[in-house]
Write a structure and sequence with these properties.
Structural class: alpha/beta
Number of domains: 1
Mean pLDDT: 96
CATH topology: TIM Barrel
Helix content: 25-40%
CATH architecture: Alpha-Beta Barrel
Strand order of the largest sheet: 3-4-6-7-8-11-12-13
CATH class: Alpha Beta
Distance between the termini: 28 Å
Order of helices and strands: HEEEHEEHEHHEHHHEEEHEHHEHEHHHHH
Shape: globular
Radius of gyration: 21 Å
């Protein structure tokens, strides 16, 4: 059942009950004088004006040299207009040109110092239009290397991996005998230097924190599951977490006044097959332990085991990390888990469960992490598919202490003013609510800009919108032919 068919909070709650989902839901959207989402928060030394957060995203829209284009600047302007007071990285900025997930990803390298400053200034300028003060606005920059999913030059993967993963190697056509794509320890020490350079750049242009990205199948996340890797950066828990913790330690040493946060995938599952049919996990022998997951039960990879992720969060807190953004999985190999949606992206599959199940899975995992490490400020992820009922659930989980902050990703592409509208007016503009059509993923998977083509008039008018329609028409034709054949 599509969530758009639920016409009231009562209907929504009935659907949750039908699915056996336990989520708190408020009866109405509360304005700032009553909403727990309007309460100020604290991460480290930074006062945050409310509990809305903007997640970092990849726009596939920077210039080839990594500097911001008009599209990148427009997106950051929308972040400023959103009314959210915590901008968690804003942009996934690669620390090496070869580490980009696409040829037009933003770069955190010295030649783009001016560009990084321009993004922040554009956001600040826009925020002043909707807020009396920027003193409680906290802005960071996410630092990343795409690892297995590097596409620095064109659509062709140019992977750099932590280890050979038999299922992911097969899925993404990586030769399991080709060790030239596996990082050497020496190369990793040089990569650590690049993270430090990027962090210093962020600090010099005014960002208050950097996010050392360890999620969604990208490099630092993959290392967390590198049980089969020998050497300093694999094997046991200490080795697998060493790369992430070393980067954090080095940044602290060389940028002592810069705060550090981590966006962390706290659980994963088996990779799923790309298919026009209902998604199915790739085959793994029954009874054989699965050593390739982080936050995964090795004896049953369809189940979570948050023991190691919670241990890592505790150690990150001890290391001085001021907040953690809780997420899961990967948009490349299990998108229904990481990004619940009713309409799959072009390289996905039909959802094997009601997306509300996926939303609840993430909310409850974040709750379990928060209960285990209550003093660590945490941001929740995966709320977009709640659509018209997103604020009612967000209010309730923050009030109950399940999470400290609620993050928005895809929703901000279609409806950046959601936090402002809900806190100021107590209502949403339904025509702008993200319906998870997944065009913002299908477009970049086909070399186009990432934006909300169905609902954002600006993107509707771009040449990429026409090309995207052609791509989707071709895919629909292939699907019809497959079913008829």
């Amino acid at each position: 059942m599509k969530i758009t068919k639920l016409k009231s909070v009562h209907d929504f709650c009935a659907r949750l009950q039908e699915l056996g989902i336990d989520l708190p839901v408020d009866d109405q959207i509360l304005m700032a004088d009553e909403s727990p989402l309007a309460e100020p928060g604290q991460i480290g030394s930074h006062r945050v004006g409310n509990r809305w957060v903007i997640h970092p995203m990849e726009g596939w829209d920077a210039n080839r040299d990594g500097s911001p284009s008009e599209y990148t600047l427009r997106r950051w302007r929308n972040f400023g207009l959103s009314g959210a007071k915590l901008i968690w990285g804003g942009e996934a900025a690669a620390v090496q040109p070869s580490g980009r997930a696409n040829p037009q990803q933003t770069l955190a390298i010295p030649s783009n110092k001016t560009g990084l400053a321009a993004l922040r200034e554009e956001l600040l300028k826009a925020h002043r239009e909707v807020s009396d003060s920027c003193d409680d606005l906290v802005i960071g920059l996410q630092l990343t290397h795409s690892g297995r999913f590097c596409r620095p030059n064109d659509k062709q993967l140019e992977p750099r991996i932590a280890y050979h993963h038999p299922l992911l190697d097969k899925k993404f056509s990586i030769d399991p005998q080709d060790d030239s794509v596996v990082w050497s320890d020496d190369d990793l020490y040089r990569l650590i230097d690049d993270f430090v350079v990027a962090a210093r750049l962020a600090q010099e242009v005014g960002y208050q924190f950097v996010d050392v990205k360890a999620c969604h199948g990208y490099l630092l996340h993959e290392f967390l599951s590198a049980t089969t890797r020998p050497g300093d950066f694999g094997g046991g828990f200490a080795g697998r977490t060493r790369l992430l913790k070393t980067i954090i330690q080095r940044v602290q040493q060389e940028c002592p006044d810069l705060s550090i946060v981590v966006r962390l995938s706290v659980f994963d599952t088996l990779p799923f097959q790309t298919s026009h049919e209902v998604g199915q996990p790739m085959a793994w022998p029954d009874g054989q332990p699965y050593p390739y997951g982080f936050g995964v039960d090795a004896n049953d990879p369809s189940k979570q085991d948050l023991t190691e992720p919670i241990q890592l969060i505790r150690e990150l807190q001890e290391a001085g990390v001021i907040a953690v953004n809780i997420t899961c999985g990967s948009p490349y190999y299990n998108p229904h888990v990481q990004r619940p949606a009713i309409f799959p992206p072009s390289d996905g599959y039909q959802p094997p469960e009601d997306p509300l199940v996926g939303v609840a899975r993430q909310i409850h995992a974040a709750r379990e992490c928060k209960q285990a490490v209550p003093d660590m400020p945490m941001v929740g992820t995966g709320y977009t598919y709640l659509q018209d009922y997103l604020p009612q659930v967000a209010q309730a989980v923050v009030r109950k202490g399940w999470i400290d902050y609620v993050g928005l990703g895809r929703m901000v592409l279609s409806y950046p003013q959601l936090p402002l509208d809900t806190l100021r007016d107590g209502e949403m503009r339904r025509k702008l609510v993200c319906r998870t059509f997944s065009d913002c993923t299908t477009a970049p998977r086909n070399g186009l800009l990432s934006g909300c083509f169905p609902l954002d008039l600006y993107y509707k008018g771009l040449p990429d919108a026409k090309e995207l329609r052609l791509v989707k028409n071709r895919q629909a034709k292939q699907l019809r032919e497959m079913k008829e054949g």
